[in-house]
Amino acid sequence: MARDVKELFDLTGRVGVITGGSRGLGKEMAEGLAEAGASLMLCARREEWLTPTLEEFRGRGFKVEGMLCDVSKPEQVQAVVAKTVETYGRLDILVNNAGVSWGARPEEMPLDRWEQVLGVNLTGAFLFAQAAGREMLKRGYGRIINVSSVSGLQSSADGPHYVGYAASKAGLFGLTRELAATWGRSGIRVNAIAPGFFHSRLADAVIEHAEASIKARSPIPRVGEAGELKGVALFLASDASNYITGQTIVVDGGRTIV
Ligand code: NAP
């Protein structure tokens, strides 16, 4: 008989790493996985957001550890994966969420900013998938979620311009497909989420620019709200999506279909 739906979404005994889990969308997705029973390792560069989030989560009874880490640095990525396995004995779920952006017209984009954005958003996701994937391959079980963006699907021709961000987020679709195809037979599923616009430290300036058009054009005519991403992350992290790999779920109020 098929498993009960509560069982399919249950993450009790599972261990997840969420990059950029200290605030914003990463924090919300971490909360969702923890509410479903997962033990977590959160990583981010700065303590000022990471420490309060760890305290808040522990106060709610979640099993959560944290580590400072820059996802673009291979040795720091490896250290997070090693610490996760040392602490919890396994690694089942990776959410590649850490991301940065830089606004500039293409003709004015400084090379060092291009390299930073690609280094965090795309190379960082690859490095974490590689390090976590090696652990997952040992046990024949893994779920990787790459947090892309509608910016990987649509241009920002009306501005604000973010050529490096768009390229990095489009690159994540290729990374997702390639890892899913390569590791599918080894029990590792790899999918992507492409959020539209959600309030955050990263997105607020862009939302200020785009909100009128979001309201005018989207079938669901508003910015995304708190709580509207964590269910999607839980779905892809859990056994509820066991026959899905290499896919992208767009969470944008339908904006990209019009
Ligand atoms: P945010 O509030 O700025 O959060 C970004 C997170 O990533 C923070 O925890 C940040 O912590 C961490 N981070 C940044 N650079 C890092 C690095 N090099 N190494 C490790 N951690 C790093 O932004 P957000 O909106 O929640 O964005 C989260 C993800 O969602 C990003 O990938 C973003 O592209 C994507 N996204 C967001 C939206 C939106 O509307 N908000 C839409 C589409 C996609 P530190 O700064 O301390 O490192």
Descriptive report:
- By secondary structure, the chain is of the alpha/beta class.
- The chain has one domain: NAD(P)-binding Rossmann-like Domain (Rossmann fold, 3-Layer(aba) Sandwich).
- It is 45% helix and 15% strand.
- The chain has a seven-stranded parallel sheet, with helices on both faces.
- Helix 4 packs parallel to helix 5.
- The protein is globular.
- The model has no long low-confidence stretch (mean pLDDT 97).
Give the SSE map:
Layout: H1 5-8, E1 15-19, H2 24-35, E2 39-44, H3 47-59, E3 64-68, H4 74-88, E4 93-96, H5 111-139, E5 142-147, H6 163-183, E6 188-195, H7 204-217, H8 230-237, E7 248-251
Parallel strand pairs: 1-2, 1-4, 2-3, 4-5, 5-6, 6-7
Helix pairs in contact: 2-8, 4-5, 5-6
The chain binds NADP nicotinamide-adenine-dinucleotide phosphate (NAP).
NADP nicotinamide-adenine-dinucleotide phosphate (NAP) binds next to helix 2 and strand 2.
Short recap of the structure:
The chain is an alpha/beta fold and 258 residues long. The chain has eight helices and seven strands; from the N terminus they run αβαβαβαβαβαβααβ.
Kindly provide the name of the CATH class.
Answer: Alpha Beta
Gap between N and C termini, in Å? 41 Å
The CATH topology turns out to be Rossmann fold
Shape: globular
Give the CATH superfamily.
NAD(P)-binding Rossmann-like Domain
Low-confidence stretches: none
What CATH architecture do you see?
A: 3-Layer(aba) Sandwich
Number of domains: 1
Number of strands: 7
